[in-house]
Design a protein that fits this description.
Length: 416
């Protein structure tokens, strides 16, 4: 009897051990999944070249099948921007369509120009869905010439209305004056509409967007298409800057023609510890695409948008048979940038600011109208140029080289 009891007890203990051991794999499974994720991240770094080769193959296949139609789409966009018809086809939103006595949103102009415009675009979409009007506040902005420190100031001299057709309500609009006087306003920081993927309007998610502010109300529209369409309504250069930009593109032989664009951003990005792709990486990305973009015997035309003009000589020495064009060539040597730093902007005089942003507008137009874009994802210039591109241009023509993009286990463009 004693032996039977002992045997039974041993069996029970064994079963309990088995049960506990059986439970453990739930935790081990989590550990293994986490380890797998780490392995995938490491693997994605090792496969960076494979990722870029795959994107290049996709680009080649697209160009081989649709080269002429892509040229037609880009040509139409170029003429629309440059002849002024874009403002008629994509009129400014009805910024004053909010109900009387409603809350006014105040959207800060934060960071560099493309960063600030990105957040204004997302903040504007959020405001419209809330049925609210908004103003842009440039308080504390490196780019603003105003010395105002009050976000509710009624000043009418701003960076945005100097270079662009009006974005948001003017600060002296009666609705704004009353809302500020009565305290009916709310400042909306960028994290609200960037960290929230729904309000960021990412690719692959569809949105019903109906609003009295905007005539182009849409049913079940993709997030990227929504942002691209709204950008065309919201962002228009003033005629003086539009005409200067388009004239420069024609002088550079970039208007209404096929070319590859390289976006090379350095400067103050060193402070954020990004690894800059070398010029050899840009060349390796562009070279296999030359036959698909240019006709037989045609000299490859490459537009270089950069804040570091010293890289032009490196590129030209590496591929003397290619035709490189850049606004760096237009600037006199002593005014050529050797790396942009946003903290330098407040120390520029008005003439230097004008020259800086005129160059920037030319580069943005050139990047957006290129048949193939090769750049990096760590700059908001890439985001803005991507959203400027016509809706029916496939994203495989937009190639990002930086390792930060390769570390992502999803398409970085799908996160924009």
């Amino acid at each position: 009897m004693g032996r039977l009891f002992t045997a039974t007890l041993l069996i029970v203990v064994a079963l309990l051990v088995v049960i506990e051991v059986w439970k453990v794999p739930d935790h081990n499974k989590v550990i293994r999944v986490d380890q797998n994720r780490r392995d995938l991240r490491l693997g994605s770094l090792e496969r960076k070249s494979d990722i870029l080769r795959r994107r290049r193959r996709e680009t080649q296949a697209l160009l081989q099948q649709h080269n002429e139609s892509i040229s037609e789409i880009l040509s139409k966009a170029a003429h629309s921007w440059c002849d002024g018809s874009d403002l008629m086809e994509y009129p400014l939103p009805k910024y004053d369509a909010c109900p009387a006595n409603s809350t006014l949103n105040v959207i800060p102009f934060f960071g560099g120009m493309t960063n600030a415009l990105k957040f204004i675009l997302l903040g504007a979409l959020m405001s419209f869905q809330e049925n609210r009007c908004f103003i842009v506040s440039e308080v504390g902005s490196h780019l603003s010439s105003s010395s105002n420190t009050n976000s509710t100031s009624s000043t009418t001299e701003t960076f945005t209305n100097h270079f662009f057709e009006g974005i948001g309500l003017p600060h002296d609009h009666p609705f704004v004056v009353d809302a500020l006087a009565q305290g009916r306003y709310r400042e909306r920081i960028w994290k609200e509409y960037w960290e929230n993927r729904v309000l960021r309007r990412v690719e692959g998610a569809n949105y019903n967007f109906k609003t009295p502010f905007w005539s182009a109300s849409m049913d079940m529209v993709d997030g990227v298409s929504l942002k691209r369409n709204f950008l065309r309504h919201m962002w228009h250069l003033r005629p003086e800057y539009r005409e200067h930009t388009c004239r420069a593109l024609k002088e550079q032989e970039m208007f209404d023609t096929d070319y590859i664009a390289l976006s090379i951003r350095r400067g103050d990005k060193t402070k954020e510890h990004f690894k800059f792709p070398g010029m050899d990486e840009y060349i390796r990305a562009a070279e296999p695409l030359i036959p698909s973009v240019f006709g037989e015997g045609q000299t490859p035309k490459i537009f270089v948008a950069t804040d570091d003009c010293s890289i032009l000589s490196v590129l030209r020495s590496a591929r003397p048979q290619w035709m490189f064009r850049s606004q760096c060539d237009v600037l006199v040597p002593e005014r050529q940038q050797m790396g942009y730093d946003i903290n330098e902007i407040p120390h520029m005089n008005e003439a230097q600011k004008e020259e800086h942003f005129r160059k920037f507008f030319i580069e943005l137009y050139a990047l957006a109208l290129s048949k193939v874009y090769i750049g990096v994802g760590y700059t908001n210039v890439a985001w803005f140029a991507y959203m400027m591109k016509p809706n029916n241009i496939d994203k495989s023509t937009f190639i990002l080289l930086d390792s930060a993009s390769a570390r992502l286990m999803v398409d970085p463009l799908a996160q924009w």
